[in-house]
Structure formats: C-alpha cells, structure tokens
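Task card 7
Instruction: Convert sequence to structure tokens.
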Amino acid sequence: MRCLITGATGFVGRHLAAALLPAGHEVHGLARRPADLAIPLHIADLADAAATEAVVRAVRPDWVFHLAGYASPGASFKDPPAAWAGNLTASQGLYAAIHQSGLKPRILHVSSGMVYGDLPAGVAAFTEDAPLRPASPYAASKAAAEMLAYQQTRNPGLDVVRVRPLNHLGPGQPPEYAAASFARQIAVAERGDGPPVIVTGNLSPQRDLTDVRDMVRAYVRLIEVGRTGEAYNAASGQVYRIRAVLHRLTKLARVPVAADERGDPTRAGDVTVVAADASKLRAATGWAPEYTLDRTLADMLDEWRQRGGKD
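Output:
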C-alpha cells in the first residue's frame, strides 16, 4: 500500500514507518517542519487544508495514518488553545483536504484512551461504548477530534477507523513523558553529569502501558481489517502505578539513585487510573503485545545511555 503518516517525525510516527517499510509498503510522511527521516517527507500544516490537499494529491495514499496532534496531557493544562489547535483544528484541515482531493483512502484516526477520564467505582476497565468524560484540555480536544472523525464517515462518507490507545512508551520517546524522563535522568547520573536524584511528578497515577513497537503493529492491523466508523481500544491490559515504573528503572541503574517526588498543581483534576478493555481489538485483528514492560524499560535506558542522556 501507499501510506501517508501525519506526524511522521514524532515518536510514534518514526516507529510506524519502521514497521511498514519491511512489509513492502511505500511510506510517505507529512509534518510541519523538515527532519531527517528514512522516508520522503512532505511539509505542510494540517490546519492549512489547501496545502494538505496538495500533499494528498501528490502522494495519492491508499492508507492514511493520522498521528499528528498535540501530544502532552500535562502541558495542555498550561496551554489549552494549543491542544485544541493541534488536535481538533488539524484534524478538520486533514479531513477537508482528503474530501476535496476526491481520493478515497482508508484512514486510521489515532485518538487517546484519555478521552474516557477516570474509572468509575466498580468498573474494571473501559469498553468502547463507555461515556467520554475527558479531564484535561488534551483529552477534551482528542475527544472532539474523534467525534469529527466519526461524523466524516457519515458525511461526506470517508473511510475512517478510530483507535483509542492507552499510554505507550519505548525507545525514542521524548523526556516530557514520565518513563523517558526517569531513564534520561538515570543515564545522566551514571555518567556523573548530574546528581543521583530522579526528579519526578506525582507517582501515584496508574496507567496501562504498551510498548510503542507493539502499538504500531495494532495500528497496521486495524487499518487492514477494522470496520469503518468503529472505535477500538488499544491497550496491554496491564496497569502499573508510575511509582512501580520508576522502581523497575532504578533497579536497572548502574549507580544508586533516589527519587524526589514533586507535585504539579497545574494538573489538578487529571485522571488517576486509566484502564481499557482491548478485547474488541484482539478479536478483530488477533493482535497481542509481545514486549514486556521490563524489556521496554531496559531498551529505553540503553538508548539514553548511548545518547549520553542528551535529547
């Protein structure tokens, strides 16, 4: 297939391209700024529907993976307009461009499991028919973009499959995210370039964690066989407290390290527990995770060591 990945220069986009190329697909990327990639990269701002349409017409994709967007739940509390622009406005531009192009690609719209909000008492995990109660500007903008994606399947009739991934991590993740930040700080401490103290945010939240390399396999299977208009949870089914993630990483450290936990008052009201039932995805695609959390964390730490703890 001829594939177009929006947000191709990001953490997940790079892993997705790396999964598609060995399978023989032709892969193109779309991003706002140039970057060094192993695939052709087209430069456009998704909010500019005309520029995006020109890219779509040039590539003529069979598959579009819509990964681009504002990606940080924590930062969204400080800059809500950026979250709305990056998630909803960008999606509006993309779908307008595809419709105006007259082409009929299959589209995977990547939403977020954060759209569900907190787990109600007595509920073990969210299913796809659960109400959406987003608790952050990031999650609210993701929910709105996802509703737009569904509406586009009704009129003008685009072929869109929606996926709601829970937290994913792995090599290449930027240090704005918890596990990547921990791994980077450990690598710096091991080199003696910083104190043997890992500065953290709130370590109490619980998250379902999936290796990004497993997650992109789920994306490929969904664009192959997912049903138009349907939403699918993508999750490992294993929920970990962030404190436990830090503990697993510190056990891998080559020097003794301590933790300095600091709260972030701007994130008051953020969800504490996120868990989703991915049985619909598994039944439709046969997908299952292959990477253990310990393998993922070890790979992340090794990568930061190779980079000398530098971004």
